[in-house]
Specification:
alpha+beta; YacF-like; single chain; four-stranded antiparallel β-sheet
Length: about 250
């Protein structure tokens, strides 16, 4: 099944973008080729760019605190495991403390590294990191892979608290949803949002064998999915056949 996720607000949009970058960084760091380490460094810069939003850290801290208050209010409920509550609360508190202990924005310490900022200033230029542009960087890429990896891990550590906090928040959000199978008649599905609830994320799973692409739109009142089909690399067009897929609304 192919998973598609649709955020209902800008905050979740930013969280998902950062999550994708952190996942890419994790995959690149376990590789050894200089090209992989080059793109790992570019990914570090992209995380810094997305995390540069002034209120991002405040939003994440507020979300961590809100979740902790919610879980603390559930203590004493006989239907809920006290052990699990304590574990989640401790994770939330640890993430809060680690992120709050960092001064400034995520990766701000890296901005004081002149060599890194020189690379960052040129990665947006096509082939801007050639050996004649950045000979010191070219030499770094030819160092032993273990030394390059050590440097990358040191630089990535400054971004770890934010990544861990986002991973936990998105897991808690996704766990609130209950999957259900729905039918799209003639390729179109619409559903009114349940009243009295505020949803932040919609998750959609679709069988790749159907060769369908969902075009998703939604707000606090209505969610809509149009199923498109592409053939031979042409522009996707509306599918007029009935189809089914799995949908999950997370609050």
């Amino acid at each position: 099944m192919i998973l598609y996720e649709y955020p209902f607000n800008e905050r979740q949009r930013t969280y998902l973008r950062l999550e994708q970058l952190y996942r890419r960084l994790g995959e690149l760091l376990v590789r050894a080729h200089p090209v992989d380490h080059h793109f790992a460094l570019i990914t570090l810069f992209e995380i810094m760019d997305v995390a540069a939003r002034a209120d991002l850290k405040t939003d994440v801290l507020k979300d961590l605190e809100r979740h902790k208050s919610l879980f603390d209010s559930l203590r004493g409920n006989p239907e809920i495991s006290e052990h699990m509550l304590s574990q989640v609360s401790q994770l939330l508190e640890q993430c809060f403390n680690d992120l709050n202990a960092q001064s400034g924005k995520a990766g701000q310490a890296l901005t004081e590294n002149e060599s890194l900022m020189a690379i960052r200033s040129r990665v947006g230029i096509p082939a801007g990191t050639c050996s004649f542009d950045l000979p010191a960087y070219h030499a770094w890429l030819h160092r032993d892979e273990r030394l390059r990896l050590r440097d990358l891990e040191t630089w990535a550590e400054t971004l770890t608290p934010l990544g861990q906090a986002l991973e936990l928040l998105l897991k808690l959000l996704r766990d609130t949803g209950v999957p259900q199978w729905v039918a799209a008649e003639k390729g179109v599905f619409q559903q009114a949002m349940p009243p009295g609830r505020s949803f932040q994320l919609m998750r959609l799973r679709i069988d790749p064998k159907l060769n369908l692409i969902p075009e998703i739109s939604g707000n606090r009142l209505l969610v809509s999915v149009r199923l498109l089909r592409t053939e031979n690399g042409c522009k996707p067009h509306l599918c007029h056949e009935d189809a089914s897929f799995e949908i999950t609304l997370c609050s």
